[in-house]
Write a structure and sequence with these properties.
This protein has helices spanning about 35-45, 105-110, 130-140, 155, 160-165, 175-190, 235-240, 245-260, 280-290, 310-320; strands at about 15-20, 20-25, 50-55, 80, 95-100, 120, 150, 170, 220, 225, 245, 265-270, 295-300, 320-325. The chain is an alpha/beta fold.
C-alpha cells in the first residue's frame, strides 16, 4: 500500500537507494556496481532530496570486510551463505547461496535510518530476481507503508513478472531518471526548479558513489546504447537511443574521483566504447595521458574488435588499460 507523504512546507524528502542481494550458484564483484541507481541518486541529491544508500553486496561492511578476500584492481569476493535452492533448481548438484550482507545486518541498517519517504530498489541480471524479492520483503517488514519503486535490468526486461511477483508498489522500466523524478514528485509533492534534461549526458551530476562503504573502483559510462542490433543482446531494449558524453567531461570525472578519493581503478561500462574512436575515445585517452595520472582501466562489458586499430591499441596501453574483454 502506497503512503503518499506530501512535503508541502516541510523539509526535503528522504529517499533510500538499495542494491539487493544476489541469490545464485556463483557471484563475484567483477567491477559490478549498480551504476544506474547511483546515477539516479546523484540526480536526486543534486535536486535537493536527502539520499541514503544501502548496498546489500557491500564488501567493505565492518561485519564482513576482514573475512572475505579482496581481489586485484578493486575486484573481490562477496560474503555468502548457503540457502535453500529454488524448487526448479533442486536437481543441480551445487551449493546455492545468498551473496552479500546478512539479513540481520540489512535490518539493522534500515532501523538506523530516518524513515524514508520512498525506497528505490534496483535489479541486475534477470535470473537474480529471487534476491530482489527477498530484499523487498525485508524492506516491507521494516517500513510497511513506505512506497517501494523497482527499476533496473530485470524490471525492464521482465516488467510484467516484476509487477506480479516482486512486491514493489511501482515498477519502472527503461532509463528511469525522468520517470523517478516525476513519480517522486507525485508521491511526495516535492519539486525543485532545476530542469532535468535526460538526453544530455554532460548535464548529469556524478553518481553518488561516495555513499558507499568504500570506493575500490569507479564505473565510468561515456555513452549509452549501441549502434548494432545483435539478436543475442538486450542493449537495444535497455537503451534504445544512442547518446554520448563529451570527451572532456569524461576526463574531468576520472580526475575528480582520482584526486578527491584516490581511486586508481576505473571500469568502462559502455556497450560500444571504441565506436567513432577518432571523435570519442581517442580524445578521452589523449586527455588522460596529458594529465599524467597513474590509474588503471578495465572493460568488463567488452570491446568491439572492428574499430581496434594500431593507434587505438597504442593509446589504450599508454592511458593505463589493464583488463580488456
Amino acid at each position: 500500500m502506497i503512503n503518499s507523504n506530501k512535503h508541502k512546507g516541510k523539509g526535503a524528502p528522504n529517499i533510500l537507494l538499495i542494491n539487493p542481494w544476489i541469490d545464485d550458484f556463483a557471484a563475484y564483484d567483477f567491477w559490478a556496481k549498480p551504476l544506474g541507481l547511483l546515477i539516479i541518486g546523484g540526480i536526486l541529491r543534486d535536486r535537493g532530496y536527502n539520499v541514503s544508500f544501502i548496498d546489500c553486496l557491500d564488501r567493505f561492511h565492518p561485519d564482513i570486510r576482514d573475512s572475505i578476500k579482496q581481489g586485484q584492481f578493486g575486484k573481490g569476493r562477496y560474503a555468502k551463505r548457503a540457502i535453500r535452492k529454488p524448487e526448479k533448481l533442486a536437481d543441480i548438484p551445487r551449493t546455492y547461496s545468498r551473496y552479500g550482507i546478512s539479513e540481520e545486518c540489512l535490518k539493522q541498517q534500515l532501523l538506523d535510518l530516518s524513515r524514508p519517504d520512498a525506497v528505490l530498489v534496483t535489479s541486475l541480471m534477470t535470473y537474480w530476481y529471487p534476491g530482489v524479492f527477498e530484499t523487498i520483503k525485508v524492506i516491507r517488514e521494516i517500513f510497511s507503508h513506505v512506497p517501494i519503486l523497482l527499476g533496473g535490468i530485470y524490471a525492464t526486461l521482465c516488467r510484467e513478472h516484476a509487477m506480479r511477483h516482486s512486491g514493489a508498489d511501482i515498477v519502472l522500466s527503461g532509463q528511469g531518471e525522468r520517470a523517478v523524478l516525476e513519480t517522486l514528485k507525485k508521491l511526495t509533492g516535492f519539486s525543485c526548479e532545476n530542469r532535468f534534461v535526460s538526453n544530455e549526458l554532460d548535464n548529469y551530476p556524478y553518481p553518488c558513489l561516495d555513499l558507499q562503504g568504500g570506493i575500490s573502483y569507479v564505473p565510468i559510462l561515456t555513452s549509452r546504447g549501441c549502434p548494432y542490433r545483435c539478436a543475442y543482446c538486450a542493449s537495444v531494449f535497455l537503451n534504445p537511443q544512442r547518446s554520448r558524453r563529451s570527451p572532456g567531461h569524461v576526463v574531468e570525472e576520472i580526475l575528480y574521483w582520482h584526486e578527491r578519493y584516490g581511486v586508481r581503478d576505473f571500469a568502462f561500462y559502455d556497450d560500444a566504447l571504441l565506436m567513432d574512436a577518432e571523435r570519442h575515445v581517442l580524445p578521452i585517452l589523449e586527455g588522460i595521458i596529458r594529465s599524467e595520472i597513474s590509474v588503471r582501466f578495465h572493460t568488463p562489458n567488452a570491446l568491439h574488435i572492428r574499430p581496434l586499430s594500431k593507434e587505438v591499441a597504442r593509446l589504450l596501453f599508454r592511458a593505463g588499460f589493464k583488463t580488456i574483454r
